[in-house]
Amino acid sequence: QVVFALNQTLLQQESLRAGSFQIPYTTEDLIKHYNCGDLSSIIFNHDTSQVPNFINATLPAHERVTAQEIDSYFRQELIYKRNERMGRRVKDLLEEYPDKSFFFAFGAGHFMGNNTVIDVLRREGYEVEHTPAGQTI
C-alpha cells in the first residue's frame, strides 16, 4: 500500500506539472473563503482535499480497492482522529480553566470537510463563532 500510495502521489504531481491535471481551486481561493468565514464553501467540504486523491476511474479493479483502503485510512487517521484530538484539547483547557479567556487559532485544514474541530466542539455543546480578519477581539 505504501508503494502504491507513493506511486499515485508522484503520478498526480507529474500530471500537475505537465498541466494535464488541475486542482479546482487555488491557494488564494482557500485564503479568501477562510478569511470571509465561508467554511461551508464547496472548497472546505471535501474531506480528502488535505491528502492526495488515490481513487480514479482509470485504475484496475484490484488497485481501486487498494486506493479506497488507503483513502479511508488517511481520512480516519489524518483528518478525523486529528480533529478529535484538537477538539478535546480545546474542551479540556476550557473546562480546566473556566475563569480564563482563550484564543485558539487553527490552520484551514482543521475546518475542511466533516468532523472538523468546530464539529467536535459543537457536539460537546460549545458555541463557536468565526472572527473575520481585521476584526478586533
Structure report:
- This protein has one domain.
- By secondary structure, the chain is mainly alpha-helical.
- The chain is flat and about 55 Å long.
- It contains 4 helices and no strands.
Shape: flat
- Total number of β-strand segments? 0
Structural class by secondary-structure content: mainly alpha
Query: Which spans of ≥5 residues are poorly predicted at pLDDT below 50?
Result: 46-50
Largest sheet: none
Strand content: under 5%
Number of discrete domains = 1
The mean pLDDT is 78
How many angstroms separate the termini? 47 Å
Order of helices and strands: HHHH
Structural topology:
Blueprint: H1 2-18, H2 27-35, H3 61-96, H4 117-123
Helix pairs in contact: 3-4
Characteristic terms for this protein:
137 residues; mainly alpha; 4 helices; metalloprotease; metal ion binding; EC 3.4.-.-; protease
